[in-house]
Specification:
281 residues, alpha/beta, six-stranded antiparallel β-sheet, 12 strands
């Protein structure tokens, strides 16, 4: 085939492994493929939006909810792998976006931040990364997110906000400060689009007894048992609870992310939720 220069560049945008196999509809196989970093834009004081190239006209086609794995490297050149949920929807063609907090001590985020535009980055998508699938078929969902744990919730909310969906959704979203809130405007837009079905509750604080913050009218402190009782849908067969955040959030609310069972004694267990209702992202 004779390709135009642009088409040839797009076709070479993704380097696949030999004999690729796929876990889902996602364009990324379950072994490492490489795509180029094509864009980088500061989002706020510590987060950056990174754009990665895909073949022209192709969608990432990632199931909702699911994430991808990114291969980074530490200071010694050892491989370090992290899960990320794109913030771009499957309607975007030819690229996908990741919103990443760049931690000073962060291994992969610091490596990513140091890359030049055009650099190849390894990604794959495996069966373990496929979580609860839309349409969820539920009456109500409560989402609990901390920091960058918002990204899988945002992925789901983009579909849940559509007019033909009837699910009642409450998002409890914890951050250290109002400036740390990611996707605040986008979440507000989805809340408005849903005509009252989606409620976003921001919780801000660096300690459980956070003092008032000038200009802040949302909840203060940390997301805790009392706030879950106040806002969450009560346990029922047609209710789900989605959790995504730092390991300490899982420890307090539901038990480790890599253990399917809802851990006895955790907040959600105390409140009467069951393993079937709780989805760890």
């Amino acid at each position: 085939r004779h390709l135009s220069a642009a088409a040839a560049a797009a076709e070479s945008a993704m380097k696949l492994p030999a004999n690729p196999e796929y876990a889902s509809s996602c364009i990324l196989p379950n072994d490492w493929a490489e795509v180029p970093l094509v864009g980088k834009k500061a989002y706020n004081h510590d987060s950056t939006l990174y754009t990665f190239g895909l073949p022209e006209g192709k969608s990432l086609s990632l199931p909702v909810c699911a994430c991808v794995l990114m291969r980074g490297f530490d200071a010694k050149g050892e491989v370090a792998v992290r899960p990320y949920t794109p913030t771009s929807s499957n309607e975007v063609l030819g690229s996908f976006d990741l919103l990443v907090k760049v931690y000073e001590q962060g291994v992969v985020s610091k490596w990513l931040d140091g890359l030049e535009i055009g650099a190849p980055v390894g990604f794959k998508h495996i069966p373990f990364n496929i979580k609860a699938q839309y349409p969820f078929g539920l009456r109500a969902i409560t989402m609990l997110a901390g920091g960058t744990g918002i990204t899988p919730m945002y992925q789901a909310l983009q579909l849940l906000a559509k007019a033909d969906d009837k699910t009642e959704v409450t998002l409890l979203y914890g951050n250290k400060s109002p400036e740390d809130i990611l996707l605040k405007d986008e979440l507000a837009a989805l809340e408005a689009q849903s005509e009252g079905r989606i409620k976003v509750v921001h919780v801000v604080g660096t300690s459980p007894d956070q003092a008032p913050i000038e200009g802040w009218e949302g909840e203060l402190g940390w997301v805790d048992k009392a706030k879950v009782e106040k806002y969450a849908a009560k346990p029922a067969a047609d209710v789900a609870f989605f959790v995504c955040g730092l390991p300490v959030m899982y420890d307090v609310f539901c038990g480790p992310r890599d253990e399917e069972e809802l851990k006895e004694g955790t907040v959600l267990h105390q409140l009467g939720y069951t393993t079937d209702m709780v989805h760890k992202f």
